Amino acid sequence: MNHLPLIIKREYLTKVKNKSFIVMTILSPLIMIALISVVAYLSQLNNDKVRVITVLDESGFVQDVFENTERTKYHVLENMSLTDAKKLAEETGSVGLLHVATPNSIDDVSNHIKFYSEESPSLSLISDLETKLEHKLTDVKLQENGVDVAMINASKIHVNIGQESFAGEKTSKIDSVMKLAFGGAAGYLLFMFIIIYGNMIMRSVIEEKTSRIIEVIISSVKPIQLMLGKIIGTSLAGITQFVIWLIIGGVLLSLVSIIFGVNLQTPQQDMMEQAMANPELNMQVQDLINAFFYLPLANLIIAFLLFFIGGYLLYSSLYAAIGAAVDNETDTQQFMLPIIMPLVLAVYIGIFTVVEDPHGTVSVVFSFIPLTSPVVMLMRIPFGVPLWQQLVSLLILIATFMFTVWFAAKIYRVGILMYGKKPTYKELMKWIKY
Amino acid sequence: MSNLLEVNQVSKSFGDFKALNNASISVPKGSIFGLLGPNGAGKTTLIRIINQITMPDTGTVHLDGDLLNGSHIKDIGYLPEERGLYKSMKVGEQALYLAQLKGLSKAEAKTRLKYWFERLEIGDWWNKKIQELSKGMAQKIQFIVTVLHEPKLLIFDEPFSGFDPINANLIKDEILRLRENGATVIFSTHRMESVEELCDDIALIHKSNKILDGKLIDIKRQYKINTFEVGIKTANSDALRTELLQKFDVSLANFRTLEDDLKLNIKLNAGDSPNDLLSFLTAKGEVSHFVELIPSVNDIFIQTVKNN
Question: What DSSP character marks residue B53?
Answer without folding.
Answer: S
